[in-house]
Structures are given as C-alpha cells and as structure tokens.
Amino acid sequence: MADIFVAGNKEKPIGKDEKRLDYRIPGIKKVKGRFYSPFSSFCYFPLGVKFVSKDPEEEIVLFLRRHWITNVGWIMVSLILLFAPMVLSGFPILSFLPDSFQFIAVAIWYMIAVAYTLESFLGWFFNVCIITDERVFDVDFINLIYREITDADLDQIQDVTVRLGGAIRTIFNYGDVIIQTAGEVPRIEFTAIPNPDKAAKILRELRVEEEVEKMEGRVR
Amino acid sequence: METIPLINVSVWLIVKIFVLFALGLYIIFAAVVVKQVGLMIKTIEVGFEAPIKFVAWGHLLFAVGIFVLAIIIL
Q1: What are the helix and strand counts (H, E) for chain B?
Q2: Domain locations in chain B as residue ranges
Q3: CA–CA separation, A13 vs A219, rounded Å?
C-alpha cells in the first residue's frame, strides 16, 4: 500500500567530525550547529572550551556569558576616553604645564583609558557560566584582584529561578538565572545571560536526566 | 623656574616625583593584569588566550615605556 504521509528527511547525513551535532538536549528539539566564537554569549556544546577540574568524560552542554548589550555602556565610555584628548586639544586646559609634562599627562590619560577598557573587557570575557552534563560551573571575575569560582553538581540543585524584567532586558531577551543548591554555596547566579528561559529549561531537563541516571545506577 | 622658597626645590621636580610614583603604581597594576590574565586562562580556556595574553603584556610594556620616558623627558 502506498504511504500517504511520509516524513521527508531533509537533514544532511552527519559526518564523523559532526557526530556530536546529533546530541539531543532533552527538551530542546535538536542542536542545530556547533558554531562557536570565543565571544559567544550563549553556545551549545562549545568547541575547545575547557575549564579547571573538568572530568575527561564530562561534556559542556551550555556556555554562557553576559549578553553583549551589557557591554554598550563601557564601550561608549571607552570611546569618550579615547577621543576626549583630541576634542579637548582645542582648549588650553594643560597650557600651564611645560610641554614635556603635557605629553606625559596625555599619556597618563590614555593609560587610564586602556586600564578601564581592559578591565571592563576582562570582566565580561572571563565572567562565564558553564552547564555540563554533571554540574554547573560559575566563574565570577569581580575585579582584577577578586574572582570567585563556584560549582555545584546537578543533583544538588534544588530550585531554578528565572528573573527577567525591564524594557531593555525584555527587548534583548536577557536576564538572570538563580540557582538554589543544597551545597556549601547555597546560591549560584548567572547574571544577564541571553535566553534565560532556555537555559533554565536545559538545566531542568538535565536534572531530570541526572535523576533518571541515578535511579538506573548510571551515575559517574 | 618656580622654586619652593623654604627648601629651594623646583616645583616641577616635586611634580615629577609624584608623576613617577603614579606611573610606578600603574606598572604594578599592569603586572597584576598580566598575572590575573594568566590565572584566568588556567581556570578557563575559550580559544582566545594568545591575543589576551599579548594585550596584557603589551599593556605592561606600554606602562614601563611611559615610566622610562617620563624619567628621561621630565
């Protein structure tokens, strides 16, 4: 008998290198691709990302960072700092100083600009959250002399809250995911991440999977 | 050249000392950046380590360069 409804398989066959493309995140239809840029804010199965204390079998499911729009503030300030000496060169602000001191004053200004830009960039770049198939890992680069690294096993997670509010956050769809754990650190916060609902959903599904693994005795 | 009457020292010499002190502090800051970047790269690798290291070291060398230049020209 002829089939009336045949589901067309339009997907390309998965090559050897793309094997992990087929990895299905529970609750998410399918991972479409593994495009990864070091500046990604939301990335499934990022290539080449490693973190301290990662187990060899452990797989990074989701890599998160603050949404790029949160960088607009410091980028604007950096541009102002960069162009201010050129704009102000028409005004005799430093004219009371000898020429050599004027030169060093401008150099110091640019050093402050570079310091501000570099610290802001590093604060964004190294402030990452990683969800693996075993745990969540949060690196908080608070400032140059203070950083905090927290991790919690998935089975220690008790509650996941998504916080999304305000016009800008709603327009660009980013917000906070707050994780309550039964571990030593009772609260892990992923701040201003893109697609917080998706991240929370993945986390929820991974927890369910972890519980199933536990029941089946497949815990690593 | 303006001098401070009591101690008979040039004002600009005192300003130079303050500037060099500030630049010295800045070199320490730049060295902390290099150290912190190294630690963060050890903590997490995302595939952009070499350019960040380059910028951190370039920043330190820039700070040292300005310090040396300040000693010479001030």
Answers
A1: 2, 3
A2: 24-74
A3: 31
Structure tokens at A31: 């991972």
Choose which CATH entry (1.20.120, 2.30.29, 2.40.50, 3.40.50) describes domain A19-66+127-216: 2.30.29
Express each pLDDT in A143-165 by its tens digit.
Answer: 777 778 888 888 888 888 898 88
Contact A107 B69 (CB under 8 A): yes
Q: Model ipTM?
A: 0.85
pTM of the full structure? 0.80
Cβ pair B19:A104 closer than 8 A: yes
Q: Which residues are CB-contacts of A185 (< 8 A; sequence separation ≥ 6)?
A: A150, A152
Render the burial of B25-58: b for 16+ CB within 10 Å, e for the rest: ebeebbeebbebbeebbebbbbeebeebeebbee
Nearest to A52 by CA among A179, A139, A170: A139
* Higher pLDDT among residues A108 and A17, named by residue: A108
- Residue A164 phi/psi, 5° resolution? -140, 115
Q: Distance of CA A60 to CAs A87, A103, A175, A208, Å?
A: 47, 50, 21, 17
Given CB atoms, is A35 within the 8 Å cutoff of chain B? no
List the domain boundaries for chain A. Answer: 19-66+127-216, 72-122
* Separation CA B8–CA A209 (nearest Å): 79
Cβ atoms of A180 and A207 closer than 8 Å:
no
Q: Please give the structure tokens belonging to residue A76.
A: 């604007």
Residue A39: list chain B partners with CB under 8 A. 48
